[in-house]
Design brief:
three-stranded parallel β-sheet, 3 strands, 46% helix, elongated
Length: 217
Amino acid sequence: LYGPPGCGKTLIAKALAKECGVNFITVRGPEILSKWVGESEKAIREIFRKAKASSPCIIFLDEIDSIARVRGDMYTDYGVGDRVLSQLLTEIDSTSNVGDVFIIGATNRPDVLDPSLLRPGRLDLLIYVPPPDEKGRREILEKLTAKMPKEEGLDLGELAKLTKGYSGADLEALCREAGILAMKRDENNVIIKNKDFLEAMKKIKPSISDEVLVWYE
C-alpha cells in the first residue's frame, strides 16, 4: 500500500485483519533497527516465527521504506540496512511454503524501495491509496462528528467541498480543533458551529497539494 501520509493505509490493513478474523502483527520499520550487530536480523526472524506459529496471520510492515531501501543507499548505517533487507527477503520467501501468512507493507515513499522486494512472489501487488474525494471526506466527517454536539443544520457537505487536499488525519485534526474552539467559546454549553470549523481551517491546513498528487501519479 502506498500513497500520501494520513490517507488510511494502516487503517486498511487493520480492517482487513478484522474482516478476515485473522491474527495481526504490526511491525514499524524504525523499531526493528538496532545498533547491536545481529539484533535487527534476529528481530525480523522472531516476527516471522511468531506469524508462522499463529497462522492464519497478517504481518503488517508499516513504514517499510525505513528497512527496505535500495541496497547501498544507507551510507551511514554500516551495512545494517542491507543485512536487514536480506533477512526480510529470506523470511518472505520462506512463507511461500507455510500457507496462511500474508504480508502487507505500507509506505509514502515507494520510490526508495529496493526492486528485489517488489518482484513477483514477494510484495508484488502494488495498491495506491489516494486521498479521500469529496464524497469520502463527507463520510469521514460524518463519522468523526457523530458523537460531537453540533448545531442544527451544520452542513457537512459544504465542509467536504471546502476541505479539498485534506487527508483523513487532517480531517480528524480539524474536527478536534473545532471542538476545542467551541469549548473555549462556552465550556458550559458546548455546541460546535459551522464558524468553528471555518476558524479551525485557518489553523489546520491541507497536507496534500496538487504537486504531491502529480508526484504519486
